[in-house]
Amino acid sequence: MSFSPYGLLELPWWGCVIVTFCTVQSMFLGVTLYLHRDQSHGGLILHPALRHLFRFWLWFSSAAITKEWVAVHRRHHAHADQPLDPHSPVVFGLRRVLLEGYELYGAAAHDPATLRTYGRGTPDDALERRVYAAHPYLGITVFVILHLLLFGVPGIIMIAAHLSAQPLFAAGVVNGLGHAVGYRSFEMPSTATNLMPWGLLLGGEELHNNHHAFPRSARFAVQRWEVDIGWLWIRLFRALGLARVRWLAPRPHFERRRRELDAETLHVLFTNRMHVLRAYARHVVLPVCRELARREPRGALPPGTSQLLVRHPAILAEEARRRLREVLERYEVLRRVVDYRDGLQQLWNEAAGNQGRALTQLREWCRRAEGSGIGALREFARGLPTYAR
After folding, report:
1. What is the spatial distance between Cα 183 and Cα 186, in angstroms, rounded to a whole number?
2. With 0-12 CB in 10 A as exposed, 13-18 as middle and 19+ as buried, what is 371?
3. Is the C or the N end of the chain the one with fewer CB within 10 Å?
4. Which residues are CB-neighbours of 166 under 8 A, at least 6 positions away?
5. Sequence spans of domains, the chain
6. Could you tell me the pTM of the whole model?
7. Residue in 259, 265, 252 with CA at minimum distance from that of residue 360
8. CA 22, CA 105: separation in Å to the nearest integer?
9. What is residue 198's three-state secondary structure?
10. Furthest-apart CA pair in the chain: how many Å?
11. Pick from 54, 35, 37, 16: which is nearest to 162 by CA?
12. Do residues 331 and 292 make contact, with C-beta atoms less than 8 angstroms apart?
């Protein structure tokens, strides 16, 4: 049975679904590979032919202009969850970002200051100036007309599904739910979350927390059990000579034999600092909380204490900060665990400016941690020299 009596192509219902799925997925692929990983952060370098193919397809199928998208996204990273973030649910509320995310994006994309500050390095050739930027809605108009000519009445539904995909999933789901629900592998001054460990439908953009932790990485999957379908496409394009990877998020490696804390160890720890802090939360903070809960009378340790200690202080609400202060005042062991973590974070700032001083401080930090009397902290400190290239 045909659904398209008026179009040039008569497709069954499942054929219309497949065509729409392919157009939407190719649009998402252009967003994540070209606009995001290549243009915005530079961790991926696409072949010029592939760049132009994506640039045309995004203009043609979604009216996306490279400079506008890149500028808005870079501004988001520069001010994540702060007042200048163009689409943060912390600032605007989750409901508004979900329902009006595209409008928030549009307001920032047409701000001259945003384009001037964050849009540098994007294409500025004659084709961009005279066609894409000059006529941003010409491509999508032709796209709609072609759908109606080719698929007839079902084309209306196909167009509606296609045109709603990017505002709903990219502007709403990733920018909204990606800062509200999901899991956090890495703590940072941003509420970004991983929506799920298998980034299959949105080009890998579901791994939003990983991306905020390592913005330049061409691969969004960081844990070995995570899947980034965008990375699979990158591997294909790289095999064909159409892509080059400039930077990847580090994955820690270990040597069983403990080594001396030297300049190389400091460099490895600095490179893997997000992993080191994640390991500190898992192997120090949580075990100490569990041990304290076992020793204290039932109900004495406030529920959610471990999460308060793990979360980055910058994203805690005022009430959560008050509860955290009360817990730290009450339990010295937790206060010491937090102080050691803060000292470890401070080492990264020292490592960036003065490696010799940072190395001395790292050795002193490990010496004090091993003698702290906190078993989990002692074992963590002993494990730091096992990080290797």
Report:
1. 9
2. exposed
3. N
4. 27, 28, 31, 62, 64, 102
5. 13-245, 263-388
6. 0.92
7. 265
8. 25
9. strand
10. 80
11. 16
12. yes
Question: Taking the C-alpha atoms of 165, 28, 82 and 312 in order, what is their torsion angle to the nearest 10 degrees?
Answer: 110
Percent residues over pLDDT 70 in the chain: 98
Helix (H, G, I), strand (E, B) or coil at 388: strand
Q: Are 27 and 168 in contact (CB under 8 A)?
A: no
Give the pLDDT confidence score for residue 5 in this predicted structure. 64
Q: Is 1 a residue whose pLDDT tops 50?
A: no
pLDDT in tens, 7-16: 888 899 999 9
Contacts of the segment 216-220: beta carbons below 8 A, 24+ positions apart: 216/41, 216/42, 216/43, 216/246, 216/247, 217/43, 217/247, 217/248, 217/249, 218/37, 218/43, 218/44, 218/245, 218/246, 218/247, 218/248, 219/245, 219/248, 219/249
For residue 359, is pLDDT > 70? yes
Amino acid present at 139: G
Dihedral of CA 348/349/351/352: which sign?
Answer: positive
Tokens 């505002």 — which residue?
167
Residue 45, classed as helix, strand or coil, is strand
